[in-house]
Every structure is written in structure tokens, then in C-alpha cells.
Protein: Deoxyribodipyrimidine photolyase
Organism: Sphingobacterium corticibacter
Amino acid sequence: MKDKVNIFWFRRDLRLEDNVGLSKALAQDIPVVPIFVFDQEILSKLPNTKDIRVDYIHQALQSLQDKLEEVGSSLHVYHGKVEDVFTELIQKFDVHEVFCNRDYEPQAINRDKRVQKMLAKEDVTFSDFKDQVIFEKDEILKNDGTPYTVYTPYAKKWRAALERKHYTTAPSTFDGFYQTKKKSIPSLKTLGFEKTVLNYEIPSLTPGMIGDYDQHRDFPAEDRTTRLGVALRFGTISVRECVKTALKNNDTWLSELIWREFFMQILFHFPHVVDTSFKSAYDNIRWRNNEKEFEKWCKGETGYPIVDAGMRQLNETGFMHNRVRMVVASFLCKHLLIDWRWGEAYFAEKLLDYELSSNNGNWQWAAGCGCDAAPYFRIFNPDAQTKRFDKDLKYIKRWNPHYADRIETAIVDHKEARERALKTYKEALNEARS
């Protein structure tokens, strides 16, 4: 006789506490087998064996495993194709229902549809829940029922709709897990990856971390951002906890959380943004796409100190300060006239806190081609940004200590690059109108 179980499928929610789908699963009278799948189809496309995100997930899973061991259970971690994993689970257990939390990226939506269809053939219910956002899909719409494409009215509606129930902690009870001996987690080497510099710590959010966030967030040398982007990305912290803390302590940080959900709903409603401009007229831009200049940008060798400092921070740590992200993105698209998709792909490869919707939305914002886009003629001056946000050069000296030696070899003149960008953008828009 096979044991009758329910399954909870961890994905972007790597925590036991305040986890909606897990809470729903544990509320049933059937033991819950917790699983995680290192999806072969995703991992095989990652170019770097020292991928800091894979290491983050691996260490977060080990933390989960330690907690599950305390309650006599174990995480079942697989490496393979998702459908094959569920086939194996159905052969091993009498599976009644599969629980998980919803994902909103096009690839994930398609995967879940395939899994749901496959499970239905085996009379297994597939139940998914809202967990990684406060409002999803069609919950925040214009009065005419269409999705918002501009942030400010979306944020206003989001705030007006918010009630305490939306950020109430999901109940946590851990006595419903399937009892079994501890299972081993596949090693990074088995997965085809290597250890990185990352040392995982369970994320936390205190009022002190965001109390004066609005006063310090733009100054990269101060390093006063929360660094919780990766925790929200992989669900090692609950968005409800974040919103609850933001409401009491800092409205600007709450706005950042709303931006995150704005870009998520843009991706859900307009999946074409993954590889084309939100505003199609901007697909007419004649990008220069100089590969040697792109390589210099990637390596932090443009001759613009703040741009190079940002790229070096990214390459060394998997993180870049938010203000500097805007500067380096604008520089690539406007100064070098290199397709925003090149920069987006590079960030996708390097950023620990990479999230498709935010990465895509912010790159299109920088290029001027996205929803809620900055006007195309807004072009960041790297030197002016330095004087305003790093006037003592502390950030630049930290990440680009030999900056003075490189300034004379700047790959482009700001004034000339600005004029070239304005001309190229105007031509593209005129072509679209004709």
C-alpha cells in the first residue's frame, strides 16, 4: 500500500512561515510531502557554473531542511524535468493533491498548465495560491476593466484597495508534514555548479532598516538599501511582512514594493515585453550594437568612473546599487546606443536579485521604450550623477580605485553621445508615425 499524501511544491517561496500555499496544505488531514525541483530545463541554460542564484537557492533549501528535520520530516529535492518528477512521486505515493503558490512569468505559467493537465489525468488536484504579491493579475484594474500601464494611478488604486487582511500573516502549523528520515539534497557539483562567495543568512526586516530609507537610498556609498530584493525574489521573506513593516515605518519603501507588483502585472498582461518594446515604435531604433563597446561596458572599462564602479560591483558581488543601475542602464542605451535587451540579458546573468518583471521593466524604463517610460530625451549625465550622489567619490573609490587612470580613455564624449541618441530616437519615432 502506498502512503496517501498531499504535496507542497516549493518554488519562489522558500520559507515555512507565512507561506499561503503551505499553510493551506498543512490545514488538511493528509500528511504533506514538501518538494523542490531543480528544473533541468532552466539550469541547463545558465552559462556560469558559479551562478550565485543557484548557490543561494541551494543554501536556502539546506536551511529549510534543517527546520523540517526538527519536526521529523524532510524536504525531497529533485533534479530533472518537472513532469518526470511528478510521475515519480505518483508512482511512489498515493497523491491526493498538489499545492503551490502562483508564479506570473510566462514560462512558469505554461509549465504549471502542463503539470496541472498531467496531474488531472491521474485524478490529482492541482491547487495554487496567491503568495508572492499583495495584489495579482486582475485585482488592480482601471475603472474600465483594463490594466494600468502607468505607475502613479496604479499605486493610488493599490493603496486605496489595501486592507489589513491583505497583509495578515498566513497561519503556520508544522505538525502536518509527512514523517520520514532526512533526505540528502543534491550537491552543487551534482547539479553542475560550484560554490560561490555567498553565505546565506535567513533574511530579516526591522524598522531600523527602513526608518530613514527615503533619506539615504540614492547614495551608493552609504549602502543603506535593504538588500531584500533577492529574499523577495526567492520568497525567503514574506511580502506581507514587508508591507506590514513598510506601512508603519517608511512610505517610500512601500512605494518600491508597489513598483515590484506594478511590473509583475505588466508582465502578466503584456507578455510581449519579454523580448519586444512595450511601445512598439521604439522597435524602430537603429541600435549601434558595437560589440567591443558592449564588452567594455560589461567589464567596467568605459572611462566613466561611476558607470565602471557599478559594473565592477555587479561583476564581483552580484549586486549593484539601485541609483547606479539607472546610470549604467541609461549609459548603455543612450550613450552607446546598444539595445536594452543586451543589458537586460547581462543583468539577468549576473544579478543575485534578478527578477524578470522588474529587470525588464526597469531596462525598458531606462531605454525610454517601456510603460510609464521616462521620456526618451531624458539622458543621465554620469558626471552630474556623480556630483549629486557620490560627491566625495567614496563609492567610486571602493569599486573603481584606479578610476583616474581611465577617465582619459572614455569610449564616448557625453555631449556627442547625447546628440547622437536624440537624433537616433527622433528618427525612429518619426518613422513609426509615417
Remarks:
- The CA atoms of residues 50 and 361 lie 26 Å apart.
- The chain has a mean pLDDT of 94.
- The two ends are 71 Å apart (CA to CA).
- The chain has three domains: 1-131, 133-167+212-269, 274-433.
